[in-house]
Structures are given as structure tokens and as C-alpha cells.
Amino acid sequence: MATTSDIRNGLCIKYNNDIYKITEFLHVKPGKGPAFVRTKMKSVTNGKVLDNTFSAGHKIEDVRVETHKFQFLYHDGEFYHFMNEEDYTQIRLLEAALDRPDLMKEGQIVTVIINTEDNMPLSVEMPASVVLEVTHTEPGVKGNTATNASKPATVETGAEVSVPLFINEGDKIKIETEKGTYKERVKE
């Protein structure tokens, strides 16, 4: 059993007969009244996001997990297939278990969180950023770059990202996976 002081991003807990992963948390100590922890949790079974507030010292049941490196192989409709880097076993996961499946490229290495009680995969953690090639975007108009203007661009995985006007088709860009936002252009 853990308490609210153990809450951190990525912690998996049992709550309402389901397993949730903490995605955001904030310890709040108001001037008047007891302290509490405000959390945003994502269900690892169906992807539902839940906002919840725990009072300070509240007991929570944590889930013991292991992390393993897996390589993303392919996806066939609703399932995404991964291969373990150590023993070459393969698993498949529903799209709901993935945070940003539209930014995953075949062959990419991800971290899979596995429940140690039943060896079931719970969720997939992407790297902090990925480098993808822009496959389609409208050309920028010369002279419109004085402001922080942006335009939509489609990358090689099919995801759409808002990019600055100077980005062209064929450019490689770094995308922050947590928010799905453009970070920088990558020169090779």
C-alpha cells in the first residue's frame, strides 16, 4: 500500500476495480483546510481519462510493474504489434493502451510497462521526442514569417502537426511526443 505522498507521473494504481496510470498530479496545501493531491489518471484497459482528488495520507493500492524495451513492428487495424528486444517474443496491444500511436514509426524502440502479477502489458511509453519526415505541407508565403505563424503538416506516420511556415516537404522535424507539438527542424 502506498500513500498520496508516493504519487508521481507514471505510477500505476488500482482504483475503482481498474488499473490507472497517473499522467499528471499536483500536491495542494491550501491556507485553510487539509492538504490534498489533484490527479489526472488514464485507464490502461480502455484509455479513459479521469480527474480525481485524494486527501492527504489517503491509502492507494499501487501495482508492481516492470519496464521492458520493445520494438514496434506494425499495426493491423486495431492491434499494434511489438517485439521484445531481449528474448524476441511478440505481443500485441489495443490502440487504447498507447498514448500517441500516430507518432510511432515501424522499427521504433518504446518502453512497455508490464504488470508483474499476471505479466500483462499495461501501457507503452514513447521516447520524449521523435524525428519524422514531413510528407505533405502547403508552401509558405514569403514575407509572412514576421509573426509566429504556423501551418498544418502531415508526417510520414500520418499524424498532422502544426509547424512554422519555413518547413517544407522532405524536411525532418523533431516532435515532442507528450503533446504532439513541433520542436525543431533536424539537419542531417
TrEMBL record:
GO CC annotation: cytosol
Pfam families for the chain: EFP (PF01132), EFP_N (PF08207), Elong-fact-P_C (PF09285)
Keywords: Cytoplasm, Elongation factor, Protein biosynthesis
PROSITE patterns tied to this protein: EFP (PS01275)
Translation elongation factor P/YeiP central domain boundaries: 67-122
CDD domains given in the database record: S1_EF-P_repeat_1, S1_EF-P_repeat_2
Stored SUPFAM superfamilies: Nucleic acid-binding proteins (SSF50249), Translation proteins SH3-like domain (SSF50104)
GO MF annotation terms: translation elongation factor activity
Keyword Cytoplasm: yes
BP term (GO), one: peptide biosynthetic process
Elongation factor P C-terminal domain ranges (all copies): 130-185
Compartment list: Cytoplasm
Superkingdom of source: Bacteria
Metabolic or biological pathway, per its Swiss-Prot or TrEMBL entry: Protein biosynthesis; polypeptide chain elongation
Function: Involved in peptide bond synthesis. Stimulates efficient translation and peptide-bond synthesis on native or reconstituted 70S ribosomes in vitro. Probably functions indirectly by altering the affinity of the ribosome for aminoacyl-tRNA, thus increasing their reactivity as acceptors for peptidyl transferase.
Similarity comment: Belongs to the elongation factor P family.
Protein name: Elongation factor P
Organism: Bizionia saleffrena
Taxonomic placement: Bacteria, Pseudomonadati, Bacteroidota, Flavobacteriia, Flavobacteriales
